[in-house]
């Protein structure tokens, strides 16, 4: 089958970088808005029998990017794609993997059902909860950016550093970074009161006089990172803090709040378009990892 790649509007630079790694040009398609807000989608080339990959993270605005992906997938199916894979570097709605109140949906399961109805396989990076893979009725290739980010951190490794999980949910992730970098690990015990408000109950581990590397799978509003940073400073850490996360959304008014803290750098990937004008950022691209995965999957014809 001929390998063909289409780029959604969620992250054009990453899609084009992956295409360049593959030695191809992104396929010709239209994704545009009608005046009433409806999305018009059209495949503008022959793809009958092709092995098609759609690169589209479902980051902000998540609903728009999800619908773009579904419409693009449906257009490819109707145009005769032989096999259809969604490459979703950032999978939105992954935090809605359970109900905390009786009146809520399980958003991650609904997204899985919708995507499984049009795609035949999915590639994604560092799901918020790996158990979400069980929601899908199609194969899911779950990649991790942790080795890439850990390697980028290695150049700045110092003896006084400590890996910190900003909540207990990131404990396993922190241990992974600790093993890669041969550094001790500490944990912050937090309580989330809402999508924006977080408080810290305790810090577990040796922090005083050390330089923290806060690690998480994603930064959205920044509430978790901000509360963890404030707690670490109270425990006497050095005001030289690095944050590493696979996905950096930095939604809302997080910029001014972060810039007031001694966060020296945020290290992240380009799973979503990197935000600008905030604290210094170092971006590690996913292009090579995604291209290598596409080549491997394409070879499984």
Task: Report on the biggest sheet.
Answer: 7 strands, mixed
Shape: elongated
Provide a count of the helices: 8
Helical/strand content category = alpha/beta
Can you put this structure into words, describing what you see?
The protein has helices at 12-22, 62-78, 107-116, 146-154, 171-181, 223-234, 254-259, 287-298, and strands at residues 3-7, 29-33, 39-43, 51-55, 83-88, 121-125, 140-143, 161-165, 185-192, 198-204, 211-219, 241-248, 263-269, 281-284. The chain has 301 residues and is α/β, with parallel strands linked by helices. It has two domains: 3-145 and 287-298, 3-Layer(aba) Sandwich (Rossmann fold), CATH 3.40.50; 146-284, Rossmann fold (3-Layer(aba) Sandwich), CATH 3.40.50.2020. The strands form three sheets. Strands 10-9-8-11-12-13-14 form a seven-stranded mixed sheet, with helices on both faces. A five-stranded parallel sheet has the order 1-4-5-6-7, with helices on both faces. Helix 1 crosses helix 8. The protein is elongated, with a radius of gyration of 20 Å. The mean pLDDT is 92.
Task: Give structural attributes.
301 residues; alpha/beta; Rossmann fold; 2 domains; 5-stranded parallel beta sheet; 8 helices; 14 strands; elongated
Please provide a brief summary of the model.
29% of the residues lie in helices and 28% in strands.
Write the layout of secondary structure elements.
Layout: E1 3-7, H1 12-22, E2 29-33, E3 39-43, E4 51-55, H2 62-78, E5 83-88, H3 107-116, E6 121-125, E7 140-143, H4 146-154, E8 161-165, H5 171-181, E9 185-192, E10 198-204, E11 211-219, H6 223-234, E12 241-248, H7 254-259, E13 263-269, E14 281-284, H8 287-298
């Amino acid at each position: 089958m001929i390998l063909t790649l289409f780029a959604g509007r969620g992250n054009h630079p990453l899609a084009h970088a992956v295409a360049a790694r593959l030695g191809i040009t992104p396929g010709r398609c239209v994704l545009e808005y009608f005046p009433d807000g409806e999305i018009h989608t059209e495949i503008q080339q022959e793809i009958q029998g092709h092995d098609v990959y759609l690169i589209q993270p479902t980051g902000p605005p998540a609903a728009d990017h999800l619908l773009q992906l579904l419409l693009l997938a449906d257009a490819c199916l109707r145009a005769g794609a032989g096999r259809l894979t969604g490459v979703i570097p950032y999978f939105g709605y992954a935090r809605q993997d359970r109900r905390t109140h009786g009146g809520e949906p399980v958003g991650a399961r609904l997204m899985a059902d919708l995507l499984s109805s049009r795609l035949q396989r999915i590639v994604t990076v560092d799901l918020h909860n790996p158990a979400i893979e069980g929601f899908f009725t199609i194969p899911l290739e779950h990649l991790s950016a942790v080795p890439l980010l850990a390697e980028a951190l290695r150049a700045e490794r110092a003896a006084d550093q400590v890996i910190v999980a900003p909540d207990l949910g990131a404990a396993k992730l922190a241990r992974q970074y600790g093993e890669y970098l041969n550094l001790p690990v500490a944990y912050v015990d937090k309580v989330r009161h809402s999508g924006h408000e977080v408080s810290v109950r305790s810090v577990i581990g040796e922090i005083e006089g050390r330089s923290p590397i806060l690690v998480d799978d994603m930064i959205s509003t920044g509430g978790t990172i901000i509360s963890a940073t404030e707690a670490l400073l109270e425990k006497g850490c050095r005001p030289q803090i690095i944050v590493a996360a696979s996905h950096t959304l930095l939604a809302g008014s997080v910029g001014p709040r972060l810039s007031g803290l001694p966060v020296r750098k945020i290290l992240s990937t380009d799973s979503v378009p990197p935000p600008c004008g905030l604290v210094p950022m170092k971006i590690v691209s996913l292009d090579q990892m995604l291209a290598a995965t596409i080549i491997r999957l394409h070879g499984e014809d």
